[in-house]
């Protein structure tokens, strides 16, 4: 196959065949016993490409594959950088409650408060001192922060362990990812846009149309309540975590009216009495917010795990009354049918659209090709000129129409080949890595990569 | 009088004792009316099997499901809870928020893939805000949808040779069913008799023009050019495409033109002649463009507005 051979040629250039049989063995002897990290790195070349290659003949796709292949084979070389702050890791893998240390809080600037002139005096007990002469700021006492954060973690763990609903709210710019991640971990809800005033006090009007479901103790959805669910009251959170209380006074006020406990980050300019369980910390630094929100999310995750483990043993926390009646006859089947029908309709639409999209993509590729090689009209014109010198106008016309017919045939052939690319398309990263590995071991042999399905068709075409 | 009130109160007290502490829900449908004396015969409760299991009543029994299905449901009701179908429940637009989060996760995942050169990405007609609102059934805001559209446009820029399938699927959800940009104009062909047919339009006129190789004759609605157009300027502009390329004596023009006035008709013919001429000689495109006969002039009569005399003319100022 021409396509793969091209890639293989690149692969050879990227990784010349080593003279010694095993490079990995030599590396091991040099560094002593291999650490787990190194083993992981050695396995890394398995997933070289972040995406499949659709059109392996495309130059950019080839370059991209080559780049990733090289990266995968060279990234473990050189020195190892000591552990350092990587912003995305704080979101992807946030610290657990037991990982909270004063060092971590200090490193994430959780101790930095606001200018002393902006302070709220109720925060006096959380304030460690004042820093600076010209523009003094308050410094938050981190031992208090850690203690209050741990307390908040326990609360969230307790709420989720009893099947409660935790709502994470962070409406400042940049807080969205941390909020969504924490909600994902703790099986709760997230809000990173404006709090719609009245979502708790006037919930039926605002959230009445939002979908709900009935789940059992194992979090398995139970059909049969489709007729009753729209009639039940809008849900209220059992605990609200607010990362920026200053902008969400309405939310906290509504929670207060409905006896919903609140946890929140209290900077030195926030009134801590707005919240049930304040966590004194810096709410302006994204890093500090991510640490705190992540720890709270992890605590929720632990709570969920506890609850599910207990449910598996058959221990169920009795939930407050939900006002549901036993499902009426056949309602469960009706619910399932509605669900299935919606799913099937979506799948059908999706399939239809995908077919159209494939056609459009082929068309797009064809156009790009057509733009690239636009020498065809010139050849046609030259031929026409030659014809016009000799034969009559009618003959020229006839020949021209014949020529057009041939052109159409050519277009068909081009489309055929495009479809063959489509057929060969899923050249995934594994395949690529495999192909390259084989190239490394043995000599280059094209026929090895020809699958038995493809072979007869190719012979037909040739 | 007093005795009836007393009796009613007594009955209510007994009724409530049969369903003790039943919480009032927002809209409550009693399956059946309750009476002071229960309709069904009173049955004794099943004997209690005392065990150390703290949760023995909450669990559903393994066997005899058919006979005790109601009891099973009662037990089930103790175990279930109502939860939001989506974690975005409190945003009041959960579907939109979930869609947005999915698209942004796709963007994060594939942001390092190579992009198409600017201007070469496939043109797409995305769903309008109204369409999306109808589909999701949520009051999605203009700004929110604009943010989503910018994400979609960015994903659409991923190089075609490397576009992941999941991105393609996601993009497909937001494309309009009918993509006007995929329409291609039918190429003008020369028929057996050597004629090329083209349509030209200008203002409210439209002209159908046939061009055949010949010696420079021109018929418009059955009349010659000089008969049809009294104005010299119109005669010149009708065949300007041929004149500018010095092919006035090489082709015959036959045209049917309708609508509009003389200028419009003449310039509609211009456009038709140019398009038909291109079918004969495609290489003339550059010179025809230079002559200004390739582009359709889309200007139409501007509508008259209220408070104005014409489209823009203000009424004369009067002191009182």
UniProtKB/TrEMBL annotation, chain A:
<dbReference type="InterPro" id="IPR001865">
    <property type="entry name" value="Ribosomal_uS2"/>
</dbReference>
<dbReference type="InterPro" id="IPR005706">
    <property type="entry name" value="Ribosomal_uS2_bac/mit/plastid"/>
</dbReference>
<dbReference type="Pfam" id="PF00318">
    <property type="entry name" value="Ribosomal_S2"/>
</dbReference>
<feature type="region of interest" description="Disordered">
    <location>
        <begin position="401"/>
        <end position="462"/>
    </location>
</feature>
<dbReference type="InterPro" id="IPR018130">
    <property type="entry name" value="Ribosomal_uS2_CS"/>
</dbReference>
<comment type="similarity">
    <text>Belongs to the universal ribosomal protein uS2 family.</text>
</comment>
<keyword id="KW-0687">Ribonucleoprotein</keyword>
<dbReference type="InterPro" id="IPR023591">
    <property type="entry name" value="Ribosomal_uS2_flav_dom_sf"/>
</dbReference>
<dbReference type="GO" id="GO:0005763">
    <property type="term" value="C:mitochondrial small ribosomal subunit"/>
</dbReference>
<protein>
    <recommendedName>
        <fullName>Ribosomal protein S2</fullName>
    </recommendedName>
</protein>
<dbReference type="GO" id="GO:0006412">
    <property type="term" value="P:translation"/>
</dbReference>
<keyword id="KW-0689">Ribosomal protein</keyword>
<feature type="region of interest" description="Disordered">
    <location>
        <begin position="14"/>
        <end position="52"/>
    </location>
</feature>
<feature type="compositionally biased region" description="Acidic residues">
    <location>
        <begin position="407"/>
        <end position="417"/>
    </location>
</feature>
<dbReference type="GO" id="GO:0003735">
    <property type="term" value="F:structural constituent of ribosome"/>
</dbReference>
From TrEMBL, chain B:
<dbReference type="GO" id="GO:0005763">
    <property type="term" value="C:mitochondrial small ribosomal subunit"/>
</dbReference>
<dbReference type="GO" id="GO:0003723">
    <property type="term" value="F:RNA binding"/>
</dbReference>
<protein>
    <recommendedName>
        <fullName>Small ribosomal subunit protein uS9m</fullName>
    </recommendedName>
</protein>
<dbReference type="GO" id="GO:0006412">
    <property type="term" value="P:translation"/>
</dbReference>
<dbReference type="Pfam" id="PF00380">
    <property type="entry name" value="Ribosomal_S9"/>
</dbReference>
<dbReference type="InterPro" id="IPR000754">
    <property type="entry name" value="Ribosomal_uS9"/>
</dbReference>
<dbReference type="InterPro" id="IPR014721">
    <property type="entry name" value="Ribsml_uS5_D2-typ_fold_subgr"/>
</dbReference>
<dbReference type="GO" id="GO:0003735">
    <property type="term" value="F:structural constituent of ribosome"/>
</dbReference>
<comment type="similarity">
    <text>Belongs to the universal ribosomal protein uS9 family.</text>
</comment>
<keyword id="KW-0687">Ribonucleoprotein</keyword>
<dbReference type="InterPro" id="IPR023035">
    <property type="entry name" value="Ribosomal_uS9_bac/plastid"/>
</dbReference>
<keyword id="KW-0689">Ribosomal protein</keyword>
<dbReference type="InterPro" id="IPR020568">
    <property type="entry name" value="Ribosomal_Su5_D2-typ_SF"/>
</dbReference>
<dbReference type="InterPro" id="IPR020574">
    <property type="entry name" value="Ribosomal_uS9_CS"/>
</dbReference>
């Amino acid at each position: 196959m021409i396509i793969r051979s091209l890639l293989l040629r690149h692969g050879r250039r990227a990784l010349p065949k080593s003279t010694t049989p095993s490079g990995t063995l030599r590396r091991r002897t040099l560094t002593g016993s291999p650490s787990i990290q190194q083993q992981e790195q050695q396995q890394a070349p398995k997933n070289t490409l972040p995406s499949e290659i659709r059109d392996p003949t495309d130059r950019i796709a080839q370059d991209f594959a080559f780049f990733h292949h090289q990266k995968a084979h060279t990234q473990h070389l050189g020195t190892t950088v000591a552990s350092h702050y990587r912003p995305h890791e704080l979101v992807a893998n946030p610290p657990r409650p037991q990982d909270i240390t004063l060092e971590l809080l200090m490193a994430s600037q959780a101790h930095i408060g606001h200018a002393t002139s902006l302070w709220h005096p109720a925060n006096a007990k959380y304030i460690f001192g004042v820093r600076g002469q010209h523009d003094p700021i308050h410094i938050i006492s981190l031992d208090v922060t850690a203690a209050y954060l741990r307390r908040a973690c326990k609360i969230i763990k307790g709420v989720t362990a009893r099947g409660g609903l935790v709502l994470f709210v962070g409406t400042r710019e940049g807080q969205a990812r941390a909020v969504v991640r924490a909600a994902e971990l703790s099986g709760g809800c997230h809000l990173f846009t404006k709090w719609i005033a009245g979502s708790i006090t006037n919930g039926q009007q605002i959230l009445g149309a939002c979908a709900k479901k009935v789940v059992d103790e194992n979090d398995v959805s139970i059909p049969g309540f489709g007729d009753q669910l729209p009639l039940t009251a809008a849900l209220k959170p059992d605990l609200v975590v607010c990362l920026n209380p200053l902008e969400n006074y309405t939310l906290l006020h509504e929670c207060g009216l409905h006896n919903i406990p609140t946890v929140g980050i209290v900077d030195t300019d926030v009134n801590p009495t707005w919240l049930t369980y304040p966590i004194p910390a810096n709410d302006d630094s994204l890093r500090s917010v991510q640490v705190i929100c992540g720890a709270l999310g992890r605590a929720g995750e632990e709570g969920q795990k506890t609850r599910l483990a207990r449910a598996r043993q058959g221990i169920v926390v009795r939930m407050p009354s939900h006002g549901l009646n036993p499902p009426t006859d056949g309602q469960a089947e009706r619910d399932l049918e509605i669900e299935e029908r919606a799913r099937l309709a979506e799948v059908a639409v999706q399939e239809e659209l995908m077919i159209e999209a494939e056609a459009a993509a082929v068309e797009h590729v064809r156009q790009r090709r057509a733009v690239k090689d636009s020498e065809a009209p010139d050849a046609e014109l030259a031929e026409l000129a030659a014809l016009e010198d000799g034969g009559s106008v009618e003959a020229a016309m006839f020949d021209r129409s014949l020529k057009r017919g041939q052109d159409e045939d050519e277009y068909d052939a081009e489309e055929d080949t495009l479809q063959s690319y489509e057929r060969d398309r899923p050249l995934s990263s594994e395949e690529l890595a495999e192909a390259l590995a084989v190239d490394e071991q043995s000599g280059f042999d094209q026929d090895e990569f020809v699958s038995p399905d493809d072979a007869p068709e190719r012979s037909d075409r040739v | 009088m007093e005795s009836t009130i007393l009796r009613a109160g007594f009955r209510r007290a007994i009724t409530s004792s049969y369903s003790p502490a039943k919480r009032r829900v927002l809209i409550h449908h009693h399956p059946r009316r309750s009476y002071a004396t229960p309709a069904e015969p009173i049955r004794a409760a099943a004997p209690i099997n005392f065990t150390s299991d703290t949760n023995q009543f909450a669990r559903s029994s393994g066997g005899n499901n058919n006979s005790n299905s109601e009891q099973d449901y009662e037990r089930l009701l103790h175990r279930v809870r109502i939860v939001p179908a989506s974690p975005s429940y409190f945003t009041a637009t959960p579907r939109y928020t979930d869609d947005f989060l999915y698209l942004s996760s796709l963007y994060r995942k594939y942001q390092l893939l190579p992009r198409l050169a600017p201007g070469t990405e496939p043109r797409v007609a995305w769903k309008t805000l109204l369409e999306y609102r109808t589909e999701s059934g949520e009051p999605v805001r203009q700004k929110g949808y604009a943010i989503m559209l910018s994400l979609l446009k960015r994903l659409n820029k991923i190089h075609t040779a490397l576009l992941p399938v999941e991105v393609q699927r996601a993009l497909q959800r937001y494309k309009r069913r009918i993509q006007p940009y995929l329409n291609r104009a039918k190429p003008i062909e020369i028929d057996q008799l050597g004629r090329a047919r083209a349509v030209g339009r200008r203002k409210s006129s439209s002209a159908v023009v046939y061009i055949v190789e010949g010696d420079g004759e021109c018929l418009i609605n059955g009349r010659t050019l000089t008969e049809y157009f009294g104005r010299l300027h119109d005669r010149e502009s009708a065949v300007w495409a041929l004149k500018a390329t010095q092919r006035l004596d090489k082709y015959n023009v036959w045209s049917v033109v309708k609508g509009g006035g003389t200028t419009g008709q003449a310039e509609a013919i211009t456009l038709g002649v140019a398009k038909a001429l291109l079918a004969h000689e495609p290489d003339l495109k550059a010179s025809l463009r230079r002559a200004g006969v390739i582009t359709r002039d889309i200007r139409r009569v501007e509508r008259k507005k209220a408070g104005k005399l014409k489209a823009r003319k203000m009424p004369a100022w009067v002191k009182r």
